[in-house]
Amino acid sequence: MNLSSANPTQHPLFANVEQVRRHHTKVRDSNITLAHGSGGKAMRDLIDDIFVGSFDNLMLAKLEDQARISLDSLITLGDRLAFTTDSYVIDPIFFPGGNIGDLAVNGTVNDLAVGGAKPLYLSCAMIIEEGLPVKTLRQVAKSMKAAADAAGVQIVTGDTKVVNRGSADKLFINTTGVGIIREGISISAYNLQPGDAVLFNGYLGDHGAAITVARGELELDTTITSDCQPLNSLVETILDICPEIRAMRDATRGGIATVLNEFALSSEVGIGLKESYLPVREEVKGVCELLGLDPLYLANEGKLVVIVPQLEAEKVLAAMKAHPAGENACIIGEVIDSPPGVVFMETMFGTERIVDLLVGDQLPRIC
Description:
367 residues, alpha+beta, CATH 3.30.1330.10, 2 domains, 11 helices
């Protein structure tokens, strides 16, 4: 029979074509093999089971080569598109307070949020080392789904690559995010003015300290957990109270010191901190003292620096403290006119020291 001239739905070979299309296949292997990245059935099973099954949204389930988003739906939310990307290579991939999956979602959500954008959609690209347990990948994917739900975003497209054993360390993830900036919001590192207040939404260095302990090299008995969390809801609360926010940035690699130096250099102003104002947990102080680290440079994954006009500072601080992601928020310093491009701190002893950009790397593979 000539199949090209037949009605496929009437031929026995195609009798169950719709059922086949809707059938969710399952991964049968216990570990990832190179076949899972080959483009064949094993790869299709992996994508259908682990990613489509976990992320669970219609846009992704269509398995097109791209997500298709209505422009009309975006325009109703604001007047500018925000677009960011980041890669995550943390070691270990599971740590107290999270794992590489929710870290990848929250990190990209936060990069959008601190620009004043409402995060909407994410892509997810996985680079998987041959031999990774399938149950590990499944757990990471489910964590990503939970983090996306908590942040109110969807993972709508992605990519999967499997590399030879030893060519990667278990799992690397890239997430790209799209969001919309509401009209009238203009947040930038170039906006700082002398007199502005510097706010922070909680304890410094929790993530960096948690990762250090999780590596098991110090044999420390501590309950430090990562601060990994989405910040978009907190940012929306801040913007509702004060749309005139000067600048915001999440303090990840390089910590709060790096963010403040970037702000000072961009706006050509000085920034003064008071050590007595900086919130640091005793456990984090202990880790820093043991290893000779400075909590100002430790990574955070759920903290942001906010620069606001001085007259708005107390109002914004109260709004932050009323939010679960900002209940330990505080004012930690102010913007001054000189010396430009310099961050300094008044120490507990009444002296001053320069807080410079990080030289070298305090901790490898923290995000």
